[in-house]
Amino acid sequence: MYRVEDKYNCSETQLVILQSRMEAALRPDINEGGPEGYSIVSLYFDDLQDSCLQDTEDGVNRRNKYRIRIYNDSLDVIKLEVKTKQDNRIQKKSKTISQAEMESLMRGECIAEENSFEDPATLFNVAIKNGGLRPKVIVAYERKAYVYEPGNVRITFDRNVRASSRVEDFGQRNISYDFLQEYDKVLEVKYDEFIPDFLLQLLEVGNMQQSAYSKYQLCRERMDLS
């Protein structure tokens, strides 16, 4: 199922105002583990032609991103994800993998799959075999999330978006990052078929504009400038 995903590049003042409104109106995501939210570290992959990056830069309507994701610098839960974007709608295929499987993928090796294109492992394996899929950049940030059940609405506030080219260090705690600075804060609004009007009103602040914000693209570009 495809979900709507709208993104907004924000100032810290805008994030503080909006987060205080969400705190009063919605409940926090029960999975975040604490009042301060949680950290996300993702290892993004691309093929030998950097097709994922090029498609993002060109604004191709349908494009994929391949990543491995961990939370709070812990390898207790490792998510393998393939995210497909069609215009402003997204579909994410996700499964939990082991550390050994993670390390195999980081070496460019295939892992066990269900032989179904609903399985992200299958999609990774195909991209490894056909395109030489390899790790490209580490993307990290802190997230605070709120949910509203009608419409399956999820609103997230991401701060301190940062990048590292030391992909071999993924999963370690002592990674050195470069911060994106003016692009290091982003609001994401995700929902299924509708979002209630009262939430749209709460999300209005200043001249905040919807953006084709891509953490992967911005972090790759930041590493290219380093």
In words, what does this structure look like?
- The protein is α+β, with helices and mostly antiparallel strands and 226 residues long.
- It is 26% helix and 38% strand.
- It has six helices and eleven strands.
- It has helices spanning 12-25, 51-58, 99-106, 120-131, 197-202, 215-225, and strands spanning 3-9, 27-28, 38-46, 62-71, 74-86, 89-97, 134-148, 153-164, 178-179, 186-191, 210-211.
What are the salient characteristics of this protein?
226 residues; 6 helices; alpha+beta
Layout: helices, strands, pairs:
Elements: E1 3-9, H1 12-25, E2 27-28, E3 38-46, H2 51-58, E4 62-71, E5 74-86, E6 89-97, H3 99-106, H4 120-131, E7 134-148, E8 153-164, E9 178-179, E10 186-191, H5 197-202, E11 210-211, H6 215-225
Antiparallel strand pairs: 1-6, 1-10, 1-11, 2-7, 3-4, 3-7, 4-5, 5-6, 7-8, 8-9, 8-10
CA-atom Rg in angstroms? 17 Å
Q: Strand fraction band?
A: 35-45%
- State the helix count: 6
Mean pLDDT: 93
Task: Label the structural class.
Answer: alpha+beta
Q: Which overall shape is indicated by the principal axes computed on the Cα atoms?
A: globular
For the record, give the distance between the C-alpha atoms at the N and C termini, rounded to a whole number. Answer: 38 Å
Strand order of the largest sheet: 1-6-5-4-3-7-8-10
